[in-house]
Design a protein that fits this description.
This protein is mainly beta. Helix content is 5%, strand content 43%.
């Protein structure tokens, strides 16, 4: 490797950038003329052409004989290569965007490529957008014609209608680690998966997978755990169940791998995992938010929560959805009150009747809040079920709390019930280890 240009990686916050090694104050890319002339008799050259959209950082690797392994950040010419086969690989990358990134998949042409002595070989990489990414999915029951609509970052900023909407059943939505859309039908008692390739345009796609069976009874909330298992809250059955990752690969009616029951569950709604793999469940029927530990989730059964948060002065009033921010604070949306409450990590360790660390009230009131999601900048998005609106609170408003007018109000289809950014911000929510490995630019904005 001493005769080759060596690339080294520099990691920024939530980013992977690839930069050439600087030698003697200059970028070393090629040999001198005399060395190149000599090498031409014993080595070959490989040109790799990389085409990427604006605001993305390519992540392309080339491996080959004698443990050759380098990364390039764009079109490059590799000289003085030994003869043999070289493999060009392109990792998934994501664009820069303060609201939601677009995921791009690299398509490699000409790999493996054979390098021969005294000749030039070529390969190429073209990055294309993965369907269903780069936007916020808003799922709505829509008066008997449920849809899931994808609002791009540009459409959200411009207060425009969604460019893509797919007809689905009941539409309680979550995105899995591969960017596929999962929908829970509360009335049909099914879970359906739509592959990212099916989300490129509006229409009525056929589910790739449909899960049914007695384990589903009014499914409402969906969340993937760190191992890619899907957890479902059954609002009508007062249970929380898990379908193992391997049960989600084919249509069928499997019995849940894990089932949690107990008096602590009362109409359980939209779920969320914390950084330790504990599951948090809001209970509209009891005005509580409860936590089941990662250890409890291994066995299920009739369980008492490890932590129970109860209301003080109406702080929890039919809590419908929970979401964590990047600081580990838990936010709770109340269906029967125009407010979102915040609990600090310290408060989450003890539970009980604790005064929220923050209360964000929708100025003017009159809304019923039913979902929560943070974007890349730390802005908080929610839905008003009563007025069929999408609401956004800026990072500054989130920090200030108190009574705030939404920074953005967008009319959506009737009966909105859930939100899912695709992809979610780094670390939000917790996803499977097989999650998209994306190279993100430096400068990712945290809320605090």
């Amino acid at each position: 490797m001493t005769r080759f240009d060596v690339l080294r990686s520099v990691r920024g916050v939530g980013a992977v950038l690839w930069l050439p090694l600087v030698v003697g104050g200059a970028i070393s890319c090629h040999k001198g003329t005399s060395a190149a002339t000599e090498a031409a008799q014993t080595s070959g050259t490989l040109i790799v052409t990389v085409v990427t959209p604006a605001a993305t950082f390519p992540n392309v690797t080339i491996s080959g004989p004698s443990a050759f392994d380098v990364a390039i950040a764009g079109t490059d010419t590799l000289i003085d290569l030994g003869a043999g086969k070289y493999t060009v690989a392109a990792l998934t990358v994501a664009s820069t965007d303060e609201v939601v990134s677009t995921v791009y998949t690299g398509v490699v042409t000409g790999s493996p490529v054979t390098v021969t002595i005294d000749d030039t070989s070529q390969a190429s990489v073209a990055y294309t957008a993965r369907p269903g990414t780069g936007g916020l999915w808003v799922a709505s029951s829509n008066g008997g014609s449920p849809i899931a609509a994808l609002y791009s970052s540009g459409e959200l900023r411009a207060n425009q209608s969604a460019g893509v909407s797919v007809s689905v059943a009941d539409a309680y939505a979550v995105i899995d680690a591969d960017g596929d859309l999962w929908i829970a039908s509360r009335t049909g008692n099914t879970l359906t998966e739509y592959l990212s390739a099916q989300l490129a345009s509006s229409g009525t796609p056929q589910p790739a997978v449909t899960i049914s069976g007695s384990g589903l009874n009014g499914p409402d909330g969906l969340a993937f755990d760190p191992s890619g298992n899907l957890w479902v809250s059954n609002a009508a059955g007062n249970t929380v169940v898990e379908y193992a990752a391997q049960q989600l690969t084919a249509t069928g009616s499997p019995a849940p791998a894990i089932a949690i029951t107990g008096s602590a569950l009362s109409g359980p709604a939209r779920l969320s995992f914390d950084v330790s793999g504990n599951l948090w469940v809001p209970n509209p029927g009891a005005n509580t938010v409860v936590q089941f530990s990662a250890a409890q989730l291994q066995t299920g059964g009739t369980l008492a929560p490890v932590i129970t948060i109860t209301a003080i002065d109406g702080s929890l009033d039919s809590p419908q959805a929970v979401a964590f921010d990047t600081d580990g604070d838990l936010w709770v949306a109340n269906l029967s009150a125009s407010m979102i409450v915040e609990y600090s990590p310290g408060q989450l360790l003890v539970g009980g009747g604790v005064t929220p660390a923050g209360i964000l009230t929708v100025a003017g009131g009159g809304v019923s809040l039913g979902a929560l999601a943070f974007d890349n900048s730390g802005a908080l998005w929610t839905i008003s079920v009563s007025t069929s609106q999408l609401l956004e609170f800026t990072p500054d408003q989130v920090i200030a709390a108190g009574s705030q007018p939404p920074g953005l109000t967008l009319a959506v289809a009737a009966g909105p019930n859930s939100l899912a950014f695709n992809p979610a911000p780094d670390g939000l929510p917790i996803v499977s280890p097989s999650a998209l490995r994306v190279a993100r630019p430096a400068g990712h904005v945290r809320r605090r």
